[in-house]
Amino acid sequence: MSAPSRRSRDSEYIKYGMLAVKSLEAINKPLDDMGITPEEEEVLNKASDFLNEIANGADLVSTGRYKGHNSIASMKALDFAMGPLEHLRDAVEDKEIASFFRQMADAIQAVSGNQLTDENKENLKNAVMFFQVLNDSLLESMSSGKPRVGRAKERTNRQRAFV
Fold first, then answer.
1. Quick check: 31 and 128 in contact, CB under 8 A?
2. CA 115 from chain center: how many Å?
3. Fewer CB within 10 Å of terminal CB in the chain, N or C?
4. pTM for this one?
5. Is residue 140 part of a domain?
6. How many beta carbons lie within 10 A of that of residue 38, not counting itself?
7. φ, ψ for residue 93 (rounded to 5)?
8. 99 within domain boundaries
9. pLDDT tens sequence across 77-129
10. Where do runs of H (alpha helix) occur along the chain?
11. Are the C-beta atoms of 20 and 128 separated by less than 8 Å?
12. Range(s) of the domain holding residue 107
C-alpha cells in the first residue's frame, strides 16, 4: 500500500479540523447556558463518535484486544489525538486515556438530554481543550506541509509510552 497523497492527507486534516471548530462552537453553548440547534446536536453526535473512536483505539493499544469496532478507524482517530494528548497531560491526570475520552463523549451526549451535571461540565471543558489543541495541531501540520502520516514507528512508541 502506498503512502497517502498530500491531497488525501489534507482532506483528512480539513475534515477533522472542521469537526474540531464546529464542536468547539457547539460545546461552548451549553457551557454558556445557551441552547443548541438540531445542526449543532448532529455535530455533537459526530464529536462524541470521534471521541469514542479514540477511546477504542486507546483500548486496542493498551490491551491488544479487538472489541468489535473498526480497528483501523480507531487507530487513525487515536493517531490524530496523540499530539493534543501531549498538551493535555494535566487534564488526563491518573485516568486511563480510554476513560478520559469516553467521559468527554458521555458529557457531550448529556448535552442532548439536558443532563449537565458539574462533572459533565468539567468533561465538556476538557473536550473544549482537546478540540482546540486538535485544531491548532492540524492547522500547524497543514501550514508546515509536514505530513503527520508516515512516522508510524515514532508514534507507536509514543502511544505505548503514554497509554
1. yes
2. 22
3. N
4. 0.81
5. yes
6. 7
7. 50, -120
8. yes
9. 998 898 888 888 887 876 789 999 999 999 999 987 777 888 899 999 999 99
10. 6-31, 38-63, 71-87, 89-92, 97-112, 118-144, 152-162
11. no
12. 6-162
The whole-angstrom separation of Cα 87 and Cα 81 is 10
Tell me, yes or no, whether 1 lies in a domain: no
107 occurs within a structural domain:
yes
Residue listed under C-alpha cell 448535552: 111
For residue range 18-76, list pLDDT tens digits in order: 999 999 999 999 999 888 999 999 999 999 999 999 999 999 988 887 777 788 889 98
Return d(Cα 130, Cα 55) in angstroms, integer. Answer: 13
How many domains is the chain built from?
1
CB atoms within 10 A of CB 112: 14
Selection from 12, 34, 53 nearest residue 142 by Cα: 12
